[in-house]
Design brief:
The chain is an alpha+beta fold and about 625 residues long. The protein is about 40% helix and about 20% strand. It folds into four domains: about 5-255, BirA Bifunctional Protein, domain 2 (2-Layer Sandwich); about 275-385; about 385-440, no CATH class; about 450-610, Threonyl-trna Synthetase, Chain A, domain 2 (Threonyl-tRNA Synthetase, Chain A, domain 2, 2-Layer Sandwich), CATH 3.30.980.10. α15 links the parallel β10 and β11 (about 480-485).
């Protein structure tokens, strides 16, 4: 059964049970500073999990392309990828555990034909705040799941929130226990994990078991005093990786041996002259990273040293390093652009990937040209080195992208020593830890959490954005933001320093709109309708057919001659955004602009705080 069939079976299964199929969000969300990438199907749905009404109803389903930068170093085994499709279904305060687990079992065993004896489930064992999930246990037992196929785990495995276990959840964050389903690979020819069979379990990560679905029961919200309070609206959030489901349905231990990767792997083999089975680690990394890079480029990202562009550049240059590692130092890394076109062929007809092969190849070829020049400089640098050690070898790897094996070969041939492997690996581990730290911070971006104070600041940035446009002109557009419980930071396009008078006028406008206690409305409308309403967005970007917009107003007093405000249907601020926001502006309190400064050419930054008087 191939991926297209499995994807459609999932969608049709839940549509037949009253779910509305919703469009997938873009991999890079437009005009949304809360995150760099869409990393899960539920990410765009957080406001609705907090009881905001969704225009499509309480039962939803879709397939969401996702990217997780923090997983880059994990790719190379049989089951980890940076890019994946998340099949998801949601109940927004409608059904709960009984229906969800029954449907999950029916989907897996009847629709997808997975043998019941190969499925294992995990449940939350409980802690001092939340009881052991015996309700879900009883449901699984009623479905015929044997006790030796049911495992209880703690908060590190069977509790879900975007911030992790309860003690790491900030006030306002939502979460709850979950129940995962695992597929057991047995009787697979040449199974490298067979020797673990006597002493492993579903969560031991040895490779015998593969998680294929997770039903999260979002029923708690963290309080200011650190306690967990049950939500009035109990939600279900299911996520199942398509790549993993394809592997399980076809009883194939290696996700990269599916139709989602076969054309890409074949292209790598043809260009490199190598065979996948002989060099699976490097070839799986290349296949994953080329696919992820293709989807990022199709989302409008170009290689750079900042934000999404930095991640794309890292992916492409890592591909080049691995390709050289696999084939030796060659001139054909430019052929990696040809490999990327196989990704377009793989997703043809799905509607998930829209970019021409010509445009895709131009971006990749340009980046490979840049990297080739970097490699040339690296070779010249090597000529200057008389003695090599592990630390210096890592500097060459980090700066120029030379694999350790290539460095060893070069220096051995020059009679300049051999490299201390342990010293190199120690430096590499330090680098990995720094990368993980950067991923959890830099790549999180935007809102620190969804607490009450952060939500206030988020709505304040919308008011600030419009006030800046009123004071400085319509050329002002948001360039990014970072919001914590202590302050907001807002970047915007403008080519000079603001005067003291302009800063004061901007601050006064924001506080006036707060004082007017304007209603905050959320709408999902057709893209053309959003344009007609003059919602702030970047219309040279690609948008879905329906978009999410927030309006602050109506009810405010129009400024003299404010034609653009009238054109916004009575809203003072009207922007593309995924939320969350306060219900009315008066909740925010007065803001104070504390600093205005330059961040780069043509971009300014404002810092502001909510004050008590």
């Amino acid at each position: 059964m191939d991926s297209k069939v499995i994807r459609q079976k999932f969608i049709d299964f839940f549509k037949a049970r009253g779910h509305k199929e919703i469009a997938a969000a873009k991999l890079v969300l437009e005009n949304d500073p809360t995150t760099l990438f869409t990393s899960s199907g539920m990410q765009p749905l957080v406001p609705y999990l907090l009881a905001q009404e969704h225009p499509e109803g309480k039962r939803l389903v879709n397939s969401q392309p996702c990217f997780r930068a923090e997983d880059i170093e994990e790719v190379g085994d049989n089951r980890h990828t940076t890019f994946f499709e998340m099949l998801g279904n949601w109940s927004l305060g409608d059904y709960f555990k009984e229906e969800q687990l029954n449907w999950c079992w029916e989907l897996l065993t009847k629709e997808l034909g997975l043998p019941k004896e190969k499925l294992y489930v995990s449940l939350f064992e409980g802690d001092k705040s939340v009881p052991k999930d015996m309700e879900a246990y009883d449901i699984w037992k009623s479905l015929g799941v044997a006790d030796d196929h049911i495992f209880f785990y703690g908060v590190d495995k069977n509790w879900w929130s975007r911030s992790g276990p309860p003690n790491k959840m900030p006030p306002g964050e939502i979460g709850g226990p979950d129940s995962e389903v695992f597929f057991e690979f047995t009787q697979v020819p040449d199974n490298p994990y067979a020797h673990y069979y006597n002493d492993c379990h579903p969560n031991c990560n040895c490779g015998r078991f593969l998680e294929i679905g997770n039903s999260v029961f979002i029923q708690y919200q963290k309080q200011e005093d650190g306690s967990l309070k049950e939500l009035s609206q109990k939600n279900v959030d299911f996520g199942g990786g398509l790549e993993r489901l394809v592997a399980a349905v076809n009883n194939n231990l290696d996700m990269f041996e599916s139709d989602l990767f076969s054309k890409i792997i074949n292209s790598i083999e043809n260009i490199s002259g190598r065979v996948y089975q002989d060099i699976t680690d490097n070839m799986s990394i290349i296949a994953d990273h080329v696919k992820a890079a293709t989807f990022l480029i199709a989302s409008g990202v170009t290689p750079s040293n900042k934000l999404q562009g930095y991640v794309l550049r890292r992916l492409l240059r890592r591909v080049a390093v691995k390709f050289n590692d696999m084939c030796g130092m060659t001139d054909n890394i430019k052929d990696l652009a040809e490999i990327a076109t196989s990704v377009i062929d793989t997703y043809e007809g799905t509607g998930l990937l829209e970019i021409s092969k010509t445009d895709l190849k131009l971006v990749i070829t340009d980046e490979m040209d840049r990297f080739s020049r970097t490699l040339d400089r690296g070779l010249k640098e090597i000529e200057k080195i008389d003695v090599i050690d592990g630390k210096k070898a890592f500097e060459l790897y980090q700066t120029f992208g030379f694999p350790l094996e290539v460095i060893k070969e070069i220096f051995k041939g020059k009679g300049k020593g051999e490299i201390n492997q342990e010293e190199f690996e120690e430096e590499f581990k330090k680098h990995q830890e720094l990368s993980r730290t950067a991923s959890s911070g830099m790549f999180k971006g935007g809102l620190a959490d969804h607490s009450e104070i952060v939500t206030k600041y988020h709505t304040a940035t919308h008011l600030l954005h419009q006030a800046l446009r009123d004071v400085l002109g319509p050329q002002v557009f948001q360039q990014g933001s970072n919001i914590t419980a202590e302050r907001l930071r807002f970047d915007f396009s403008y080519d000079r320093k603001m005067t003291d008078e302009e800063i004061k006028h901007t601050e006064d406008l924001v506080n006036q709109r707060i004082k007017e206690d304007l209603k905050v409305d959320h709408m999902i409308v057709d893209l053309d309708k959003a344009k007609q309403m003059n919602a702030i967005g970047l219309f040279d970007e690609k948008y879905a057919d329906k978009v999410s917009i927030y309006g602050v107003g109506p009810g405010y007093k129009l400024d003299a001659g404010a034609k653009d405000q009238r054109a916004r249907g009575g809203y003072y601020s009207l922007e593309f955004c995924g939320g969350p926001h306060v219900k009315h502006s008066g909740i925010i309190g007065r803001i104070k602009i504390t600093k205005e400064e330059a961040t780069s050419a043509g971009v300014r930054r404002i810092r502001a705080e909510i004050v008590l008087n």
